[in-house]
Design goal:
There is one protein chain. Helix content is 42%, strand content 14%. Helix 4 packs across helix 5. It contains 17 helices and 14 strands. The chain has helices at 10-21, 33-40, 51-56, 67-73, 94-106, 123-133, 155-160, 176-183, 196-226, 231-239, 260-273, 280-302, 329-339, 367-371, 384-387, 391-397, 412-417; strands at 2-6, 25-29, 61-64, 76-79, 111-115, 141-145, 165-169, 191-195, 310-314, 343-347, 361-363, 376-379, 402-405, 421-423. The protein binds uridine-5'-diphosphate-xylopyranose.
């Protein structure tokens, strides 16, 4: 099938590579000329394990910055543009509006338009209305909502092995679900076919629930601290109950990334627009927003003043196996530490410091360069190489003894054997 994907970000590019591997004839488009040039030259604009390799093996995938003409050529169009947050928390659908405007001129033959972007409930119905209002015949298209659930760092695997495929269709649409299923025919997955708003909300509900699990365990970790108990025992024990499940119960500095913070805010905004009170949504975000404060308090309890102290921060990205720093708690921690007068030296295997921190934080190209002479070390992102760090060496080059484990992943006894003091959250 000839398929056009609009948006060459994590979702659009991964989708294009996955569908090309199924034999579809793919055009991946983006208005960002630089990005398209880079892709045409066989490179990808972000770090995502396995994707570059897979891209090099794709025979039937082309790239174009000519979005409108590419859409004209294809009977199936996937929309995978970003929906970043506005300052009021609502989703910014500017990029989506530009796609709709292009679509209104590109639809001359029947199109199945499939939205992959995470969009507030009601958006896909509005796309249909907007297209009709701009003169497109309602017989020439159907709109489908087909959200993605991929994790950065595992994007291609998740795209090829989803635990479900959600298809939201318009009320009288009896053809699109079959079209979507035929596109994905190589994937063995349960299908959930629902309304457009149902599909839009499934995506938000999924991220809300996962974020809630993290905030739940982080709040439990605070209570564990008060009772000198180990949160990891609690995570393990409750996780063995299949009704709870063991995933997303890792206590630490909290969640970040391009999805959870943005989607929870957008869901709250969408609820408020319909005068629906949200209690849990707000609590989940509040716990996450206040989690770093716990660590600052902890560091302060070990150091009389933070002013002039050298802090080694390991990890810049919001989680391992990505160079993405959007809403990274590691970055927020560095902001807090520099505000308190620390000289921060950071290291990350893939991510680069954001512009606004470059004046205040030194990014080192080796972990030990960041660690040397540090008064304390903060582990912010659990990259495997930090877990396997030579802690004896670290102890021998650090000035201070304190290691703060922001992800509760280090072996405390091992560090203590090296003469270090290791503290996490909710760990005695
Ligand atoms: C998430 C969803 O998992 C994915 O389904 C959706 O499509 C997009 O948003 P992603 O943002 O890539 O994916 O990251 P994820 O692996 O879910 O982690 C999100 C954040 O939660 C990270 O900052 C991570 O460090 C944190 N986290 C995760 C915890 O603090 N504790 C946990 O137990 C799990």
């Amino acid at each position: 099938m000839k398929i056009c994907v609009v948006g060459a970000g994590y979702v659009g590019l991964t989708l294009s590579v996955a569908l090309a591997s199924f034999g579809h004839d793919m055009i991946c488009t983006d208005k960002d000329l630089k990005k398209i040039e880079q892709l045409k030259n066989g490179d990808i604009p972000f770090y995502e394990p396995g994707l570059l390799d897979a891209l090099h093996h794709c025979g039937n995938l082309s790239f174009s910055s000519e979005v409108k003409s590419s859409m004209e050529e294809c009977p199936v169009i996937f929309i995978a543009v970003g929906t970043p947050p506005r300052s009021d928390g609502s989703a910014d659908t500017k990029a989506l509006q530009s796609v709709i405007s292009d679509l209104s001129e590109a639809i001359r033959s029947y199109k199945t338009i499939i939205t992959k972007s995470t969009v507030p409930p009601g958006t896909n119905e509005n796309i249909a209305k907007q297209l009709i209002a701009s003169g497109v015949s309602e017989n020439l298209f159907n709109i489908v909502s087909n959200p993605e659930f991929l994790r950065e760092g595992n994007a291609l695997y998740d795209m090829l092995h989803p635990d479900k495929t959600v298809i939201g269709v318009q009320e009288k649409d009896h053809v699109s679900a079959a079209i979507v299923k035929s596109i994905y025919k190589h994937i063995d997955t349960p299908y959930v076919v629902t309304s457009l708003a149902g599909a839009e909300l499934i995506k938000y509900a999924s991220n809300f629930f996962l974020a809630a699990k993290i905030s739940f365990i982080n709040e439990m970790a605070r209570i564990c601290e008060a009772y000198h108990s180990d949160i990891s025992d609690i995570s393990r024990a409750i996780g063995l109950d299949p009704r709870i499940g063991g995933h997303f119960l890792q206590a630490g500095i909290g969640y970040g990334g391009s999805c959870f913070p943005k989607d929870l805010q957008a869901l709250q905004f969408a609820a408020q627009e319909k005068n629906t009170e949200t209690y849990l949504l707000q609590a989940v975000q509040h716990i996450n927003d206040t989690q770093l404060g716990l660590y600052i308090k902890k560091i302060k309890s070990f150091c009389d003043t933070l002013h002039g102290k050298k802090a080694a921060v390991l990890g810049i990205s919001f989680k391992p196996h990505t160079d993405d720093i959007r809403n990274s708690q590691a970055v927020r921690m560095m902001e807090r530490l520099t505000e308190l007068g620390c000289h921060v030296h950071a290291y990350d295997p893939a991510a680069v410091l954001p512009e606004h921190l470059r004046q205040h934080v030194t990014q080192q190209s080796q972990a030990f360069d960041a660690i040397a002479e540090s008064d304390f070390l903060f582990l912010a992102t659990e990259w495997p190489e930090f877990l396997a760090l030579d802690w004896k060496k670290a102890a021998s080059i650090m000035k201070g003894r304190l290691v703060i484990d922001g992800r509760n992943v280090l072996k405390k006894e091992l560090l203590e054997d090296c003469g270090l003091i290791c503290t996490g959250v909710g760990r005695p």
